[in-house]
Amino acid sequence: xxVTVNYAKARPxxxxxxxxxxxxxxxxxxxxxxxxxxxxxAMRDLRGGAKLPKMDDMKKSRRxxxxxRKMLYADYRDAQREMREAVGVKTNIDHMxxxxxxxxxxxxxx
Length: 110
Known about the structure:
- By secondary structure, the protein is mainly alpha-helical.
- The chain has two domains: 1-52, no CATH class; 54-110.
- Helix content is 74%, strand content 0%.
- The protein has helices spanning 3-19, 30-46, 55-97, 106-109.
- The model has no long low-confidence stretch (mean pLDDT 81).
């Protein structure tokens, strides 16, 4: 499971633990608290010790990246179409000039 999923699942338990002023009575949730602490530590390591971002900021960033991906993919499709057209034009020119790419043209041999 990813670090963010572990963090999100264990966060409510930690919030309850924090609301109880770190009471020792939450021993039954020690596994969830350990998961939360491990996920928090892993996310801080990934971010180079920087503070964890707010969930709203992460969602906003994800939406912006998804929009950027859509635009870039549209550019990619246009470039791919242009490349196919260029290959077709090159093939037509090569055919008109009689240039082959090393393969024998079986229609001409007959």
